[in-house]
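The instructor's notes for this session suggest beginning with a concrete chain rather than abstract definitions. Hand out the sequence below and ask the class to guess, before any prediction is shown, which regions might be ordered.
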Amino acid sequence: MRTYDFSPLWRSTIGFDRLFDLAELAKREGEDNYPPYNIERLAEDRYQISLAVAGFAPDDISITAEQNVVTIEGSKSDNAEGDFLYRGISTRHFKRQFSLADYVQVKGAGFDNGLLKIELVREIPEAMKPRRIAINGVSADSVQKQLEAKAA
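After discussion, reveal the predicted structure:
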C-alpha cells in the first residue's frame, strides 16, 4: 500500500484541513463492499447516491444527515418467514457513511425495486458566490466604459 505525506501541502494551503483529514481517514479504513452503491452527478449541482439493498424494506433502513456526513444504516430482523434451503440474498446489518462537501444537502430519498436513491443538492449561499468588487467606489462596468471612451 502506498503512503502519502501531506506535510508539504500544509505549508502552502489554508483551510483545507478537512480535505487532508478525509484523505487520511480513507487511507486507514478498510473498505467494505456491502451494500454496493453508485454515486452519480445528475447536473452541475445535483448528485444521487444509489444503494442496492435487495431484501430490505424501507422500514429496515434509516438515513441520517449531520453536518457534512450522511449515514445509511440497514438492519433486518432475524424473523425469517419460512425455512430457507439456501439464502443467497444477504440481509446482514450495514452502515455506510458518505462525506459531503460544504453546502451539499440531502434533499430526499426514494426506494424503488431494491434500490435506495438519495438526492443531494449543492446550494451555495449568495454571500459565498463570486461577486465583482468596485475599486475606489467605481464599478467595473463604468471603468470599462471610460476605457472605451478614451479609445474612441
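Then share the key points. The chain has a mean pLDDT of 80. The two ends are 65 Å apart (CA to CA).
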